[in-house]
Amino acid sequence: MMAIAILAAFWLFLRSTAIGLWIRCVAQSPTLAKASGVPVERVYLIIVVLSAAFAALAGVLVAPMTTISYQMGLSVLGPAFIVVVVGGLGSLGGAVAAAVIMGVARGVFSVFLPPTYAEVCAIALFLPFLYFRPNGIFRGRA
Q1: How far apart are CA 11 and CA 101, in angstroms?
Q2: Cα–Cα nearest to 106, from 129, 82, 125
Q3: Where are the domains of the chain?
Q4: CA–CA separation, 79 vs 85, rounded Å?
Q5: Between these two residues, 139 and 13, which has the higher pLDDT value?
Q6: 91 pLDDT band (50/70/90 cuts)?
Q7: What is the model's pLDDT at position 142?
Q8: N or C: which end of the chain has fewer CB within 10 A?
Q9: How big is the CA angle at 124 (ends 123 and 130), to the nearest 5 degrees?
């Protein structure tokens, strides 16, 4: 639920604030945004600060559920990379859809299979997406 609330808040931030409009403009074309008067360097700084804030928030939310280890991100990094690629680079809706599919697949497979096999099967489920939809789940504008 927390992830859905954070995602909804960020979506509202991007859609309903001037800074969100700047971020979307710079993402589409930094040169055109700069020509339109958008402070591109300031937007890049805002993006870095937002990225750090989201990373810190993720750490705060994950810390109570796991032990600290130098390899603690590896179990999340692989599936996250697959979700981003299958969802389509630059497509927030595609990434959300791919994340939901990945989560449901991992949950369903873990009921019937040992954890390692469930993880492999959930990842293997995305291979057809990579072959038949190399630009992401949703076609059209990212």
Answers
A1: 20
A2: 125
A3: 2-65, 74-132
A4: 10
A5: 13
A6: confident
A7: 45
A8: N
A9: 90
